[in-house]
Design goal:
Blueprint (H helix, E strand, L loop, with lengths): L1 H11 L2 H8 L4 H8 L4 E2 L4 H8 L6 E5 L5 H9 L4 E6 L12 E3 L12 E7 L8 H11 E12 L5 H15 L19 H6 L3 E14 L3 H8 L12 H19 L2 E13 L2
Parallel strand pairs: 2-3, 2-5, 3-4, 5-6
Antiparallel strand pairs: 1-7, 6-8, 7-8
């Protein structure tokens, strides 16, 4: 179990994999994000971030900006700010509003105390050395500057984890199948306050609980299929398992009229002393 976890952690943080198969473009990320269309309550996470930045002026750096949801919103709602998008993948930055930078969160190419706020949204779990990346966020922030990070709880989407294990068990002919890759476990909401607290003060957590309810299996299939970049880590034929998960989800929907997934994500805010 420990060895498997270590291998999956290494895969989740592998730079080449992140820059190519995982995030070469926005396809997989957009698929994972799309399931939240069916969540209640609906959270406008970019809008929440804009609100938290209300008193910030100057420059905001979005580290690991992905397909630019936050960068785009800030350009629209706060044209007074200088917003810089940064990611390890050049491909996923193709349609992100400029300026953008390709760089590693563990070695930010910016001067000390050059940023008024830094975002790290659903990305610190991809960094091999999380404390080093957090120290880099603090280094480039001005004193009193704001950091906003986001992640999910260890309990987030447990129903999809159970669905995957059952599908994998059926495919392999085992009583219990292997777990799917957990992206957020290395920087979960349970662990994040302590990790951020080593470099920032006044760390606050805003939980964003919700319930996803779908009446067709397509959103579930799209979400599970978006983990294709880590298929080799799952110990099971990937496409066959996704197809079996679809069958199992369809059976639940037929019996219960819907497939329900409980979610718990959130944002964390801190200040540079």
């Amino acid at each position: 179990m420990t060895s498997n976890t270590a291998q999956q952690d290494a895969a989740v943080t592998d730079k080449a994999r992140l820059a190519t198969s995982a995030y070469a473009d926005e396809r997989h990320l957009a698929a994972r994000q799309s399931i939240y269309q069916w969540q209640q309550p609906r959270y406008d996470l970019p809008g929440i971030v804009v609100g938290q930045l209300a008193e910030i002026t100057g420059t905001v750096l979005d580290v690991g900006c992905g397909n630019g949801k936050f960068v785009t919103r800030l350009h629209h709602d706060r044209p007074d700010l200088r917003v810089i998008g940064m990611d390890i993948s050049a491909g996923i930055l193709a349609d992100v509003p400029r300026p953008v930078v390709v760089a590693d969160a563990q070695a930010l190419p910016f001067a000390d105390a050059s940023m008024d706020a830094v975002l790290a949204m659903h990305m610190l779990y991809h960094v091999p050395n999380i404390p080093a990346a957090i120290n880099e966020l603090a280094r480039v922030l001005k004193p009193g500057g704001l950091v906003i990070a986001s992640t999910n709880s260890d309990t987030d989407k447990r129903e999809l984890d159970q669905l995957w294990r059952q599908a994998a068990a059926d495919v392999l002919g085992l009583p219990e199948g292997p777990s799917r890759v957990s992206l957020s476990s290395r920087f979960s909401m349970e662990a994040a306050p302590r990790l951020l607290g080593n470099a920032f003060s006044e760390v606050r957590v805003q939980e964003l609980p919700g319930l996803i309810e779908v009446t067709t299996s397509q959103p579930i299939v799209a979400h599970l299929a978006s983990y294709e970049a880590w298929a080799d880590q799952l110990g099971v034929p990937f496409n066959t398992t996704v197809m079996r998960a679809e069958e199992l989800a369809d059976a639940v929907i037929t019996e219960h009229k819907a497939f329900r997934v409980t979610c718990l994500g959130g944002i964390l805010l801190g200040r540079k002393p």
